[in-house]
Design goal:
single chain; alpha+beta; 23% strand; HSP40/DNAj peptide-binding domain; elongated; three-stranded mixed sheet; four-stranded mixed sheet
Length: 306
């Protein structure tokens, strides 16, 4: 796997704090986001690297391993285990359970020697008695963020993503939620020693630029009802996600009254043809700029009510 210096990707040095990493990621992610750089493959590739770098450096445990092991940080545990095994076998001759050629490893290892060390411990250079197949390790998972509008995920759709120069066509099911992550197998980094490829994890960021509030498959909306319709009852027209519907407002409807429109909500994730409900809350609009005649009529009503 080609080494990527995550610090250089985020334009930081190794002494960067967690806050520095977060700030740099936000700045660069905005700059190279695919929505702002359409049809720019180099910007898309840079955006993926920025996400990958943030994934590692923002996690203290991953960052510690990366700082110590470089590009082989994902196999840090295997390195440590191998070093312990090698220490126990130090001094043994070839054929006595040690390494072929009497090779011994001790002392400190820098980043450039870790890969060679790992190869000789577990790869073609390892000739331990009774050794079987080379250990295989899954490749690194890649992470990406896909930004969509709420209306985009009301229906299933197909999109083509460019990951590391490769086009990946995927179907986004209707009803996907903000923050939800889906896994696409085999589209991550190459495996180690012939192991399987890693996966691509796509996290969705759903922007809601509508008048509806969404909670899973249910939608919520506040609708104004004029004072006279609320008192006397009548018909109003309201917008749903799929179009307009007519509603009958009951006489003497109170502010905050909520009604449910069954099946007028959002699609249920991966449940074809099933929808949540739409909840409408009435907000009574009081009359303003009353004329003298109107005020007089209200005074008469006030006297009647008292």
């Amino acid at each position: 796997m080609e080494f990527i210096d995550y610090y250089k990707v985020l334009e930081l040095d190794k002494s960067a704090s967690t806050a520095d990493i977060k700030k740099a990621y936000r700045k660069l992610a905005r700059k190279y986001h695919p929505d702002l750089n359409p049809n720019d493959k180099s910007a898309q590739a840079r955006f993926q690297q920025i996400n990958e770098a943030n994934e590692v450096l923002s996690d203290p445990e991953k960052r510690k391993k990366y700082d110590q092991y470089g590009k082989d940080w994902q196999h840090a545990d295997q390195f440590e285990q191998a070093k312990q095994q090698q220490g126990q076998q130090r001094g043994q001759q070839r054929g006595g359970g040690g390494f072929g050629g009497g090779q011994q490893y001790s002392g400190n290892f820098d980043d450039d020697t870790f890969s060679e060390f790992f190869e000789q411990m577990f790869g073609g250079g390892a000739r331990t008695r009774g050794a079987g197949r080379r250990p295989q390790y899954k490749g690194q998972d890649f992470n990406a963020e896909l930004q969509l509008n709420l209306r985009d995920v009301y229906t299933s759709q197909k999109q083509t993503l460019t990951i590391n120069g490769k086009n990946i066509r995927l179907t986004i099911p209707a009803g996907v939620e903000n923050g939800q992550t889906i896994r696409i197998k085999g589209h991550g980094g190459p495996g180690i020693q012939g192991g399987p490829k890693g996966d691509l994890l796509i996290t969705f960021k759903i922007l809601n630029n509508t008048d509806f509030k969404r909670e899973k498959e249910n939608l919520y909306k506040t609708v104004e009802v004029d004072f006279y319709t609320a008192i006397l009852g009548g018909e109003i027209t309201v917008d749903t996600f799929k179009g307009k519907v007519k509603l009958q407002v009951k006489p003497e409807t109170q502010p905050g009254t909520q009604i449910k429109l069954k099946g007028k909500g959002f699609p249920k994730y991966k449940k074809e043809g099933q929808f949540g409900d739409l909840y409408i809350t009435y907000q009574i609009k009081m009359p303003t700029n009353l004329g003298e005649k109107e005020k007089e009529l209200f005074r008469e009503l006030q006297k009647l009510r008292s």
